[in-house]
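Hi P.,

Sorry for the delay on this. The queue was packed all week, but I finally got your sequence through. Input first:
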Amino acid sequence: MAEHLNEYFEKMGYALRVDCNGIVSQKHLGPHRMRGEVFDLLEAQDERIKDNLIQSKNPEKILEALTKNKSTFTHDEAQGFMNKYLSGEEGKQTSGAFWKLPQLVQLIDKKTGKAIDVFTSQKAIEEEKEILQRADRIQSKKPLFVEQEALKTPASDEIVEEVDPYIEKYQAPIKITESHKKLKDPAKILDAITKNKSVFTRDEAINFIYGCIKDVKKAQDVSEAFWKLPQLVQLMDKETAKAADAFTSQKVIDEEKKVLRLADNIRDKNPLSIKTEALQDSISAGLTPEQKQAYHAILKENRMSILQGYAGTGKSYLLQSLQKTYEKSGYTVRALGPDSATVKALEAKGLSHTENAYRFLFGIRYNKRDIRKGKEVWMVDEVGKFGNRPLLELLKEADKRDVKLILSGDSAQLSPVERGGFFRVFCERYPAHVLSDIQRQKHEEHRKMAKSLAIGKFGAALDRLAALHGIRWEDSKKHSMEALVENWVLDSEKSPNQSSIIIATSNKEVRILNEVIRAFRKERGELGDKEFYCTTSLGDCYLSEGDRIEFRKNDNSLGVTNGLTGVLVKAEERRFTVEVENEGEKQIVKFNPKQYHSYQPGYASSFYRSQGQTVDKAYVLHSPATCREMFYVGLTRHARNVEYFVSKEQSSGMADLKLKALRSSQKELTVDYTSAMEMSLARLTEERKVKIDSLQNSSSILDKVKGFGYSTWDHISGKIQERKDRAPSSEFYYFREEKTGAFRATLVNENLGEKEFSVKEMLQNAVGKAKSVKVVKEKNQNFQEVVKNTLVNTDVLSKKSNAEIVLVIGKSINSNIEEMLSKQGKLCVGFVGDEKDIKSQDWAVFSGRKVVLWPENTKEGFEISGKICHELRKMGMGELRELESKEMFKIFPANWSLEHKLPENVKEQNLQKLLTSSLHKGINLSQFSIWLSVNKNDYASKARINELLWRIDERMRPGLEKKHEGQHWKIHEVILHETSKIIHSSQERKDVLQKKSGLQGLALERLSFQVSAFEAEHGRGPRTGELQTLKKVIQKCGHVPLQKGQNPEIANYTIDRLLLHASSKALRGEKIESSLVHEFKKDFQLSEVKINQSIALDIQNTEMARQKTVSLER
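Then the structure:
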């Protein structure tokens, strides 16, 4: 239409032209299209208008828009386009920058050789030249004889190779987060761009910069500085050696070179020796011929093998056979995956010693894994999901420890989220063992379709799917979603035991499908009547009992992993109870939806999360963003059937669908290109090699010596480089622990950097109380003049703040046993005191930690252990356990303790078993505080809760242990219920006490807390006489004036805690005289300091644990 109008204007001599399209094209808002996407058209339209205004400020974007629909334009057309969106000073600045663009080209008349009023971009010129070159190449080729059957649609597989350069590459835009919008430093912008992709284009960088910085002038300045960065590298085509529209950083180039060097080094190492062929034949008996061929080849191969298997070819079954063979030959075999979902899939398929690769690497880094050098095999599945950083660290450890590495995956599936994708390179660089015999699909036609997808024949695959009536065409996206949900509902009614998966591209589509399925189930009465409005990390949603939930984050405290699904069996405002199936067993997971937000309805999933899964039937929703890898993953998850739902608005027909299936989203790596520096280094290396060969072959002895010297130096340099390559990355492991000492810690904060704090500084920052600390002395003098210290080896506690502590009760510990426990990641601390020293010992050093008590193997030893448990509960433990006496007496002789050598019949595994089977003796205060919605930094409230918790624990645990016989979760549930009942009745208690005592304000608050503690300890409220005694204690002792600079919350809690001791004495009959009041005030300062020390340790342990958790999640 625009062309016809322009022709008419020109014919009539009017100086008019139809405006060019905006940079972000707008959708037609007519009634037909509104029926398709009415729920988001208006919102999207507003966003496009805003995008036009923003992107019109970018001169390079303007040039791209002008040449999008026509190769050339005039000066007036360009100026008219800019005037449409910009005016005033801003318009002048942008216009000036536009006409100075280096990629803007003014054309010349071919006949006259003079410049004319016609402009274009360098990109458009190169594009048209390439079209002519390729057309010439195709024209010069011999004709092909093609059967008519092969020409079902224009997008046949036979012409893919020639048209591939013209197929639109699907590259998701670099996501801009809120933190990115604060970036102003070009170097940090480069790091942000290369975080999730190794190679980027010029347009991607420009879009990212202008998306982060809204001010046009600042964005232009930053963009100019960005392209001048010394660490920015423009890559070159390996074949033509011409500069490509591909950029990266030197850091990424070095990283990817290091990956290849390490892989080559591992690959060159000699193979492991395997037992007799008879053993191999017996284990491989059940394998298919191609699996058997790969099995024998991998056993004979050097230290690295590549297993490339199409989806559903039985890679896991082959890995299981390899694991059995290596284990029978005396090797330790580990099965690793890039995420918890892959690990669980490996477990389900029969592999043992499975572990998340990130957790495994951190275990090695912090000496929590016992690796047998040269005696281990690491089988790594779904290697295609690994980013560069974890893969690099895994290769470092494998090279360092001489392990056999078996890398398994499918290079045609989705790329990792972060920069990476080396499995494709490994398959091209080394001989890969390919499994192509697909077994997952039960029907022959479905297997043929899956095979076509695997080898890249997407046209044939879609034709087969259409013949199987597997493609459902609908008028609109809305109708596609409705049809998908309707089919899912009908199929679930017909076959309730059939497993299924719904797959969509975006989180928005997943969320909509989840909501629609909920609505269907709600209407059919399958869900509970009450709905709960939930705020999750993926958006707000409603849930009811009976809903399916998917957890989206690993959480060790809950025992859940990313991708784990379950059914919401009970829902309350502050507690959701979910039944999940984990490793074939049903388990119950409970969490507070007000505190834990990483979950969503679990009916639909994304392509990425579905990779690796196998179900009976799959329902896949088409999207314009669907690419080759998504088609492959989505259409190969099923064993029996798959349906693909397509909107006619988003795909015009089979030809269009096939063209979309040919687009690849595979991430490029720097090793796919070369660079000017790399070419120069290669030339210098070759020249040096020629020079060394010439010297060594010379007749001159002096030259031979020189040649030998150069060669030796190169060999030494190579060894030095190998050592550097193996060094662990501090950036990857991030968390680190330094500066040992009783009261020192390094707090690491990603945004604020590092700062080292002493106790005084920690208290000043955390509780504002450092000025009045008089007892703490920084020169190795703590409380030795006040109490006898009966704990030994406590200096190790600051080294690993998150490690489990074995508290050994006895004179000493055998060094060999201590070393064994250390290998298991345990810290050993000894209690060398007597029974009389237990109460006077300061146990605050264990506050918030995980502790296992190891008593002497005597009746008296376990009695002392029980009394220590009593004192430790007062500290608020992360976890408190004690070895089981029956198991101790079974394994060890009477009177045995850890100071003795291990008996001959006792192995290291027995120690591990004892620790694992130890009995829970306390409750995690931090988790209970979170459950009660207490702020993690509100130390005074947490301490008050613990005063109630440990009293109830002491009172109820003995009876509950007899009743529930070691079922600690039931014991803890009763104790926590009793504690929360007392806490939640505080307001009601205050109202009653006010009437009975006549107290008000702070005095009433103190009395309420005393009564709560009394009820926690005795299981009943105080009688009238007892209540009067508590009141008198508060009136005589509770008025301690606060000093300037004191934290009122901490000071008041200190007073309340000492009032508990005074009340206890008074209730036992001691008179409340002046001596008691004097003693109370005398103890106040020391007690407050001790509390502040506990808080300092709590801050240290909490922060260090948090940093470690963040690192593990990364």
